[in-house]
Amino acid sequence: MHCHICNQKTVTFQDEKSGIAYHHCKPCKYIFKDPSCYQPIEVQKARYDLHENDANDAGYRAYFQRFVDFVLPKVGQPQNALDFGCGRSRLLADILKDMNIDTDVYDPIYHPDTQWHTKKYELIVSTEVFEHLHDPKSVFEQLVERLTPGGYLALQTQFHPNDPEVFKRWYYHKDPTHIVFFRPRTFRVLAEMYGCEFLADNGKNMVVLKKRKV
Ligand SMILES: [Zn+2]
Prior knowledge:
By secondary structure, this protein is of the alpha/beta class. Helix content is about 30%, strand content about 25%. It is built from 6 helices and 10 strands. The termini are far apart. The relative contact order is 0.16.
């Protein structure tokens, strides 16, 4: 199987417990579940409906605040933003709005308004979304297309331990809707492909990229 990001040949390993095969790209460090495991959107929705995203929950708010605290010092004061794949909640968008950033939300299931298809944003954020994507490369490309020149893309997804044995014990891939896994290196490769500069990662689950001006 070739890597869905950089097209190099991958190495396949199997999680003996689940029987699931994973394809591991050494050059860009992308790991993806075998496409036979990808679920139709209705099956995914049933699981997402169980997520309890209560805007009043202090823990949930603190969780987004950590993301905002990492991202905003790197991106200055954008005029507008898009929260891509927000789920049911508008909480992250509300936090950004409180900081005077005019923020749209989009989610294919819960907020399917596609006005973002024709707008440009100075900042696009997407938290705990990329691990669900069948084709993250094309989504990455679409998001970069929606950025203004010099705009920022800030993503949150747990970085995998780049070792098959450690990976098998890792909790994050056990959610059946989590199908693809990244390292900062993967986002560096994507950044290079689509005219972005890799600005920063937090060593755990966050990256910030900047679209080049030319
Ligand atoms: Zn690759």
